């Protein structure tokens, strides 16, 4: 049987966050688009990652609230968890958002959507079981998926990843988690709040790339809720038992649990693409790209997780913006995908958000680094809500140029937007002091941190004398 042939402006392999954003933008600009997706539309974020995890986190917050009302005069109570109803809630959230990423919507925009595995036939052609596509430009947007570390016994032991954890039959009685990154911490706290006993194991210190004082605030909060950490420690063996799983640690400890979640890394999805046929170079992080996201094949680009430039949905969105700008708007002044202004957040409670350089990295790069802080313990809204853990830390050069920031506390993922906006527009510390925040809000903490940059100079003996002089004339 002959294959259907397409000759289009743009061919996209992968209908996750990056691929869909590019397809939408290009189609609405009148470009012809073929979009390949062999699995679920929406990719990892919609089906196995951001969306279901935040829905589950929301359910767990409601459960946790039952036991935290005493400071407000509300008696503590034990929540009754209907895990099947919780899963139905998660599924309902996915189904509510899914139409935005659906095949029908993109076909309505004018895209040709092909639900088959795609691969390169040669440097210029993409093919699937029933199609052959020639395109002016080709985008690889296949994303990444959970990977299993090379731990002895793991491949012979039943375990879940983020791709299965939201659909397991029963609430884990005792959940062991390998990995203390964002996925491990978020799901660890969530299942702990829903009633599971949770232990987290990692070869490294949790959040070892974050500001250490802020990482400590978060980890201490999780410990207070009952989560047990074993880190840093090496895992000697993972094995199946009659009641579930066991993990033997090299310090002699043996952990036993009913379920095992592996959240210790991800790998780019490139195995079925036949990249060699297209002369596309790959590396440890996936497809090798330049700062404009172009691969070694000048007709082919890669975006999102598969490009090895960070595994966050909003990074894929940023890449999509770069692609659309460079293809259709600014061909002679190309936008770069490289940026030091990419925010990230861990959606635990308290949340931990960061952007740019850490203090340690900044001091290694610049000689004039200064940091300023403001704690939520001094923020009136946080005090009123009895949620005063954490604070704001801003890192800047001596001239006030912001190079990084970290926020730990309630709503940190929202507050980091303020600093992200400032950094994206090359604003300095002084511009944050000009912001007027409604009172009382947590966002005041960002302004107060920025204002403290000037405390010594504003209230110095010299300015006190100037104020005394000026007072004589008023």
* CATH architectural designation of the largest domain: 3-Layer(bba) Sandwich
Proportion of beta-strand residues: 15-25%
Spatial gap, N to C terminus? 93 Å
CATH superfamily membership of the largest domain, which one? FAD/NAD(P)-binding domain
Averaged pLDDT, please? 95
* Share in helix: 25-40%
- Total number of helices: 15
Kindly report the CATH topology of the largest domain. FAD/NAD(P)-binding domain
The biggest sheet amounts to: 7 strands, mixed
CATH class of the largest domain: Alpha Beta
User: What structural category characterises the helix and strand content?
Assistant: alpha/beta
What does this molecule look like?
The protein folds into 3 domains: 4-41 and 102-145 and 267-328, FAD/NAD(P)-binding domain, CATH 3.50.50; 154-265, FAD/NAD(P)-binding domain, CATH 3.50.50.60; 344-458, FAD/NAD-linked reductase, C-terminal dimerisation domain (Enolase-like, domain 1, 2-Layer Sandwich). The chain contains 15 helices and 23 strands. It has helices at residues 17-28, 43-47, 50-65, 83-97, 103-108, 182-194, 212-224, 313-328, 359-365, 380-384, 412-424, 429-433, 444-451, 455-458, 461-471; strands at residues 4-13, 33-36, 112-114, 119-120, 125-127, 131-140, 144-146, 174-178, 197-201, 228-230, 235-241, 244-249, 254-257, 259-262, 266-268, 282-283, 286-287, 300-302, 344-346, 351-356, 370-375, 391-396, 402-409. The strands form 6 sheets. Strands 1, 2, 3, 4, 5, 6 and 18 form a 7-stranded mixed β-sheet that branches. Strands 19-20-23-22-21 form a 5-stranded antiparallel β-sheet, with helices on both faces. It has a 4-stranded parallel β-sheet with strand order 10-9-8-14, with helices on one face. The protein is globular, with a radius of gyration of 25 Å. It starts with a strand and ends with a helix.
């Amino acid at each position: 049987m002959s294959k259907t042939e397409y000759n289009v402006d743009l061919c996209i392999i992968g209908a996750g966050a990056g691929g869909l954003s590019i397809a939408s933008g290009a189609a609405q600009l009148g470009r012809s688009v073929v979009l390949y997706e062999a699995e679920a539309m929406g990719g990892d974020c919609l089906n196995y990652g951001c969306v279901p995890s935040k829905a589950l986190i929301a359910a767990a917050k409601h459960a946790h609230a039952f036991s935290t009302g005493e400071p407000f005069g509300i008696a503590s109570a034990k929540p009754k968890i209907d895990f099947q109803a919780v899963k139905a809630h998660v599924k309902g959230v996915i189904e509510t958002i899914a139409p935005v990423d659906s095949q029908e919507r993109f076909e309505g925009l004018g895209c040709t959507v092909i639900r088959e595995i795609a691969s390169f036939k040669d440097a210029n052609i993409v093919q699937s079981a029933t199609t052959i596509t020639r395109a002016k430009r080709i985008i690889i947007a296949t994303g990444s998926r959970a990977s299993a570390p090379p731990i002895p016994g793991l491949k012979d032991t039943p375990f879940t990843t983020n791709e299965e954890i939201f659909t397991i039959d029963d609430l884990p009685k005792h959940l062991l988690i390998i990995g203390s990154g964002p996925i491990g911490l978020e799901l660890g706290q969530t299942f702990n709040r829903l009633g599971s006993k949770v232990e987290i194991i990692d070869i490294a210190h949790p959040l070892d790339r974050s500001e250490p004082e802020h990482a400590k605030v978060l980890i201490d909060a999780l410990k207070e809720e009952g989560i047990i950490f074993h880190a840093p420690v090496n895992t000697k063996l993972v094995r199946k038992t009659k009641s579930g799983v066991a993990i033997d640690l090299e310090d002699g400890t043996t952990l036993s649990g009913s379920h095992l979640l592996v959240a210790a890394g991800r790998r780019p999805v490139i195995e079925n693409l036949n990249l060699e046929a297209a002369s596309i170079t790959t590396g440890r992080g996936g497809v090798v790209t330049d700062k404009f996201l172009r691969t070694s094949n000048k007709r082919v680009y890669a975006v999102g997780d598969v490009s090895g430039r960070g595994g966050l949905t909003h990074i894929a969105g940023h890449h999509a913006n770069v692609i659309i700008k460079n293809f259709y708007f600014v061909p002679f002044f190309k936008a770069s995908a490289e940026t030091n202004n990419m925010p990230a957040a861990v959606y635990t409670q308290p949340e931990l958000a960061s952007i740019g350089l850490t203090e340690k990295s900044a001091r290694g790069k610049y000689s004039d680094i200064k940091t300023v802080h403001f704690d939520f313990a001094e923020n009136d809204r946080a005090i009123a809500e009895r949620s005063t853990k954490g604070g704001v830390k801003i890192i800047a050069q001596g001239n006030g140029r912001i190079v990084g920031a970290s926020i730990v506390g309630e709503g940190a993922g929202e507050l980091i937007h303020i600093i992200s906006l400032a950094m994206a527009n090359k604003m300095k510390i002084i511009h944050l002091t000009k912001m007027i925040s409604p009172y009382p809000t947590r966002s005041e903490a960002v302004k107060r941190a920025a204002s403290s940059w000037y405390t010594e100079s504003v209230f110095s003996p010299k300015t006190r004398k100037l104020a005394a002089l000026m007072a004589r004339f008023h």
